[in-house]
Design brief:
4-stranded mixed sheet, 159 residues
Amino acid sequence: MAGACLLLTSCGLDPGGLGPGTPSPSEPPSSSDPPVEPPTLSSELLPEGTQQLEIEVGETAQIYWGGSSTSVGDNWGVLSVEPEGVAEAGFVSGDSVLGFEDWEDTSTGGDGPTALEVTGIAPGTATIRVQYCFREELAEDCDPGSEDGYPTDVTVTVR
């Protein structure tokens, strides 16, 4: 046991076991900390081919990206969001896509719905660069499988 006690002591834990700078459970959160609101998912799936969208800070929108199958090597991904801090983006699939909440993958190698999901972080305009890679890790110079897979830009304005 002496080894365990020594390890805890060397980790800098205080006698109360909370660690330096950790507020006690009875302390209220600091009033300078803004409340964190979860993103609001818009209720409509934007159509495939949408290249520009406007959303509010804290709002999340989805653009339908068609069907894809990771089991055969389809790999859509976000290469960049520039400038950083305006929006976050990533791909969702299956029942995470708006309108497909009841979708079930019952086939082997079949296509499933895919969408680009964008969340507004701060006011401004950002460019989201997405890329398709066929049976390769996401990279701007990967094999896109066809001309349709080359990098695509989507512009988001966050109000």
